């Protein structure tokens, strides 16, 4: 069993309140979760209204499939338009 973990840091420039941030994140999380069947959640910076950290997890029996899924997810998040990608890191267990 191969587990892929990805941490994604985002800047939400258009957010002026936590409510704005939650709206943008809900859109990203719901779309990624339903389209790619991965586990995704906000894992840090919950109190900052223009910054978010998401955690993404994928489980498979092949390392190549895990890497492909995580790359696809990061491309989808970048293409969203509601938030700018600051940094991401991937760990394969």
Q: Please give the share of residues in helix.
A: 25-40%
- State the shape: elongated
- Please, how many helices? 2
CATH architecture classification name: 2-Layer Sandwich
Compute the separation of the termini in Å: 9 Å
CATH class: Alpha Beta
**Count of β-strands:** 4
At the fourth level of CATH, the homologous superfamily is: TT1725-like
Query: Mind summarizing the main beta sheet?
Result: 4 strands, antiparallel
Write down the CATH topology. Answer: Alpha-Beta Plaits
Protein name: DUF503 domain-containing protein
Organism: Desulforamulus profundi
Walkthrough of the structure:
This is DUF503 domain-containing protein. Pfam families: DUF503. InterPro entries: DUF503, TT1725-like_sf. By secondary structure, the protein is α+β, with helices and mostly antiparallel strands. The protein has helices at residues 18-36, 63-79, and strands at residues 2-11, 39-44, 51-60, 84-92. Strand 2 and strand 3 form a beta hairpin. The chain starts with a strand and ends with a strand.
Keywords, separated by commas or semicolons:
93 residues; alpha+beta; Alpha-Beta Plaits; four-stranded antiparallel beta sheet; 2 helices; 4 strands; 39% helix; DUF503 domain-containing protein
Topology (elements, then pairings):
Layout: E1 2-11, H1 18-36, E2 39-44, E3 51-60, H2 63-79, E4 84-92
Antiparallel strand pairs: 1-3, 1-4, 2-3
Pfam family, one: DUF503
Protein name: DUF503 domain-containing protein
Summarize the structure.
This protein has 93 residues and is α+β, with helices and mostly antiparallel strands. It has helices at residues 18-36, 63-79; strands at 2-11, 39-44, 51-60, 84-92.
